[in-house]
Amino acid sequence: MAALNSSHYVFRTPYQTWDSYWEWLLYNGTHMTDDEFLSNFRMDRECIQQLNRMVEHDEVFSQCWGNRSKRPSMLHIMVLLKYLGSYGIEASLQKIGQAMGISKGAVNDCVM
To answer: What are the domain boundaries of the chain?
Structure first.
């Protein structure tokens, strides 16, 4: 029985791990369907990736002030789209931060 239980983990297929929740939202189509993604961000995944390719090398995303680590351009784009596509209480920094898995301060840095 012990051999059977241990072999359960030996023959598992490798799975993708994400560094952050927002990457999981972007790249994992099983967590959020394409229609749900479009509803949340008002653009499909491919359009967001094209937009990111156009701006990712801009100097705004390469500068870093103080001790803060820089945030990826993709995070800025996704937070901004979520912010622009939300209204009422859903547009609050705290709600967007909860939806994206980041702090409201990080949301503020991305949209302001």
So the answer is: 47-57+71-112
